[in-house]
Amino acid sequence: MGIVFSIIKFALGTLQELANAYGVVAKRIGASPGIPVPSPSQPFWAVPSSPLSRHGSEHSLPVDTVDVVVIGSGIAGTSFARELLRSADVEPPRVVMLDARDACYGATARNGGHISPLLYHEFDDLEKTFGIDMAKNIIHFRRAHLSSLLEAANEEGLLESSQARKVDTYDVFFEETLYKDMHSKLERYLDVFPGERGAWSTDGGPDSGMKLQLDERVCGTIKTCGGAIHPYRLVSGILSNLLKEFDTRFSLFTHTPCIDIIVERDVYVVQTPRGAIRAKNIVHATNGWTSNLLAPMRRKIIPVRGHMSAQRPGQGLSVARVDGFQSMPNWQGTRSFVFYPGTTQERFDYLTQQPNLSQSSSLLGRPPRGEMMFGGGMQMGSPSFMDAIGATDDSVTRFPDRVYLGGALPEYFGRHWGAEGRGEEEEDCQLGRMKMVWSGILGISADRMPWVGRLPAKLSGRGEVKNGGEWIVAGFTGEGMAHAWLSGKALAQMLRAGNGDAPDGFPRVFLPSESRWKKANIENML
Questions:
Q1: Does 277 fall in a domain?
Q2: Which residues pair with 220 in a beta bridge?
Q3: Per residue in 174-197, pLDDT tens?
Q4: Which of 75, 336, 343, 418 is the most exposed place for a label (fewest CB within 10 A)?
Q5: Would you say residue 97 lies in a domain?
Q6: How many CB atoms sit inside 10 A of residue 480's CB?
Q7: Where in this chain does the record put each FAD dependent oxidoreductase domain (predicted)?
Q8: In terms of pTM, does the model score above 0.70?
Q9: DSSP string across 461-502
């Protein structure tokens, strides 16, 4: 009887804790996220840092009115600037990019480096919400990012340094019910996109995991082609190219946070601690920090803190012999995984592996050594997840998240993991399996769709100017590598046209509007 009472007491206590936590979270997501903290955790991608890391931090700000101020130097803002500058018919516009910290030091430098868009996973939900034509439009848009990013890396001469490549990507399931459900979703998806049948394969056999050197508890896998990339090197490399190519038309000022925007004499005045910049157009490319300068977007784009790690692989991977199978081929750098350990697709972890180019002398900075770039764990425990919602301090890494990330990989690979990997001493890296752990801030959209386009005054909270406007490219809900690049490009096309209309092929449901803003409700996701 005492045991039953203890269980009930514990359950009631847990419910009370959750109720209290929900109240704290509700208050937090309604507040301003502020500006990025000045000393964030160190992401593995950014070691060594780019020569641009502090670019313009001591340069004088422009005195004359500029055409565009871009706030944020990540992949979305960089894509926007690249398209706007390169597509100009005559003289390119005068573009100024600001960042509160080092160049490209937000979510772009802190993600998993995987280009694995949600396709069959969400198609049914997209169809129910938007209809089949728009659902197909969104899928085509997401799918186009792999080829577009590879093409951009090649055009910029960054294909090798950014490690941009195609990989085999596997959805890995440990629960039979979820595998069957996702298999059915894939079949429905392929009925709509029959031309893709050759790009997908499934394996629900008892040895489906063993074939991939995964744990024997794997009950099924779904495979297709995805991508992997070094996001920091790609974006910082593009920024470097733009600064050289448009030295009189494009400026980057790091460590120059925007603290306010006012409308004065029909132009925007961007206030920074280093002075003011006058501009005809403002582009908000700050994702999780969007609502600091756009107060009406609070509770519409929510900051959420996630964790990532770089780990040494177990010594058994890629070289071990699996009973009943031939020796495994060396797959370093050629696979990515999304692991689903439970019964719902909302609980997942993600993994890409860097190639082993330790002997290469042609790469700038530290060459990759087959590191496992592993993230996730956010949804595994409700207290940890509650702490993450609305959090904007990426200087800290939470102990429960570090513990989870530090223990999951050997479980996913089982006996194939082998002895712990060993490596030589490296700058800023720990000596054990876990080389580095860091946090980053995601921008979660209340209706799950990105916000891309011209902002009505209701959404900016400010008056409009006659020959310009405020624009947004943000709210990628943890799927920036499958949305941000082409969203930034599309936004540049909208601004150049001046009317805010969606270009051909761009999903119109991404456009900001008062009606969409009123309907977007974050409580539907909590």
A1: yes
A2: 173
A3: 999 999 999 999 999 999 999 999
A4: 343
A5: yes
A6: 24
A7: 67-494
A8: yes
A9: SS---TT-EEEEEE--TT-GGGTHHHHHHHHHHHHHHTS-PP
Pairing between strand 66-71 and 95-98? parallel
Number of domains within the chain: 1
Answer whether 145's CB lies under 8 Å from 485's CB.
Answer: yes
Cα dist from 376 to 114, 224, 350, 388, 440, whole Å: 13, 21, 6, 12, 12
Phi/psi for 214 (5° steps) reads: -100, 175
CATH number for the domain spanning 451: value is 3.50.50.60
User: Cα–chain-centroid distance for residue 400?
Assistant: 22
Asked whether 217 and 209 are in contact (CB, 8 A), the reply is yes
Q: What is the CA radius of gyration of the chain?
A: 23
Flag whether 326 is in a domain.
no
Segment 337-355 shows an average pLDDT of 94
End-to-end CA distance of the chain: 35
How far apart (Å, rounded) are the C-alpha atoms in residues 186 and 507? 22
Round to whole Å and give the CA distance between 437 and 518: 38
Q: 269 in a domain, yes or no?
A: yes
Q: How far is CA 50 from CA 93, 197, 239, 365, in A?
A: 26, 41, 10, 9
- Supply φ then ψ for residue 302, to 5 degrees: -110, 130
- Cα separation, 94 vs 489, in Å, equals 17
What's the token pair of residue 214? 């995964």
- For the record, the structure tokens of 199 come out as 């790009």
SS3 210: helix
- Crossing angle for the helix pair 132-155 and 231-245, nearest 10 degrees? 70
pLDDT tens-digit map of 232-267: 999 999 999 999 999 999 999 999 999 999 999 899
* Residue 49 DSSP symbol: P
